[in-house]
Amino acid sequence: MSLMKESVAVTQTPRALVTGITGQDGSYLAELLLSKGYEVHGLVRRASTFGTERIDHMYLDPHLDSARMFLHFGDLSDGNSLSRMVQEVQPTEVYNLGAQSHVGVSFKNPIYTVDVDALGTLRLLEACRQMATPPRFYQASSSEMFGQVREVPQSERTPFHPRSPYGAAKVYSYWQVVNYREAYGMHCSNGILFNHESPRRGETFVTRKITRAATRIKLGLQEKLYLGNLDAQRDWGFAGDYVEAMWLMLQQDTGDDYVVATGEMYSVREFAERTFALLDLDWERYTGIDERYMRPAEVEELLGDATKAEERLGWKPRTSFDELVEMMVASDMELAKRERALVDAGLATVEWQAGTHRE
Ligand code: NDP
Ligand code: GDR
């Protein structure tokens, strides 16, 4: 498959450039933009494996007239690749979703995380500023910027106190985005998104780790699930709802900063309880604590106030917490059934500890 599109003619079709298109949010956003008639260009980084599973269903051979999604090799750590891509694509909207997005991993790889999550944003902003007509810019900011809780719930006015290299890098990016808006008059927005999950969530984030393990346990593919801090509380929404807020921010007359959240908070323990209960399993019997999943500094509770997004963007979450858990369990049960069928047919072996060694 050829990833590169050699040159792109300037047309009236809205044209989006999405970093992080292979991730959870990138895949939902690409679907949304294609459904709205956009030409979608995605940044893909080179890895030893392909890693485009989440977007393969949207991909057409770029030689076909009907192709509207195009992929370009690049990396947020490589400013030249970003400038070249921005000049080639001439996007009208840029969505910067690319990041080393795992908070726990950011303690282990802090320099890399900051290079990609902080300087990567600056590199992309600079590439956009150099265009004759700079595109509208969306930055994937995060509730992790609030970190140590100063007030509950957290809104656009709550001061930041990040508690991880990841959170600190996102605060840096947040302020660069504000500064490009103020200094250069660019249409730049920060979406301060609280946790959002889906069947496409990476398997090392706690919700997916739980739904994946519980469904595997149900089918005899795994024995136990090891977790870290069960008391942490999060405001969990559905990623499919949240990408709509991203798009809405770039359709406003001016750039601004918005909290996107459900306004409901549950603990990791409650998420596990709900998940195992849906499968008629006692969660305590199958769950253990492993210190390695504890973080050097923890964000104990996050609860968002998305009033501004509701009033200005007309955005509201559509999926409830229970619906989210059910959706993820149903999807992972299908995955586990396929795994079980392969094992039963002698085509695969059971990895009893799958998932338990991950962050
Ligand atoms: P994922 O981890 O699922 O996706 C991250 C994406 O970034 C992947 O496409 C990944 O590529 C790409 N990426 C990683 N490193 C680089 C790099 N060096 N150069 C270019 N691209 C890179 O994250 P989500 O989809 O969940 O999140 C999207 C964004 O939103 C992230 O910036 C995240 O920090 C932020 N965010 C997420 C929230 C959430 O709850 N999901 C909440 C608030 C903010 P590859 O596939 O090759 O790994
Ligand atoms: P978070 O998500 O750090 O909030 O960042 P994650 O799902 O990793 O952790 C949520 C909470 O669960 C606790 N926890 C565990 N976490 C993981 N990953 N694995 C475990 O075994 C485990 N046990 C308990 C964590 O300590 C934490 O308190 C996510 C990412 O998507 C970021 O990119 C995004 O910015 C924020 O959400 C908002």
From TrEMBL:
NCBIfam families: gmd
GO biological process entries: 'de novo' GDP-L-fucose biosynthetic process
Reactions the enzyme catalyzes: GDP-alpha-D-mannose = GDP-4-dehydro-alpha-D-rhamnose + H2O
Entries under Pfam families matching the protein: GDP_Man_Dehyd
Domain NAD(P)-binding: 17-328
Species: Euzebya pacifica
Family: Belongs to the NAD(P)-dependent epimerase/dehydratase family. GDP-mannose 4,6-dehydratase subfamily.
Keywords: Lyase, NADP
Cofactor entry: NADP(+)
InterPro entries: GDP_Man_deHydtase, NAD(P)-bd_dom, NAD(P)-bd_dom_sf
PANTHER family, A to Z: GDP-MANNOSE 4,6 DEHYDRATASE (PTHR43715:SF1), GDP-MANNOSE 4,6-DEHYDRATASE (PTHR43715)
EC numbers on record: 4.2.1.47
Protein name: GDP-mannose 4,6-dehydratase
Keyword Transit peptide: no
Record function comment: Catalyzes the conversion of GDP-D-mannose to GDP-4-dehydro-6-deoxy-D-mannose.
GO molecular function: GDP-mannose 4,6-dehydratase activity; NADP+ binding
EC category name: lyase
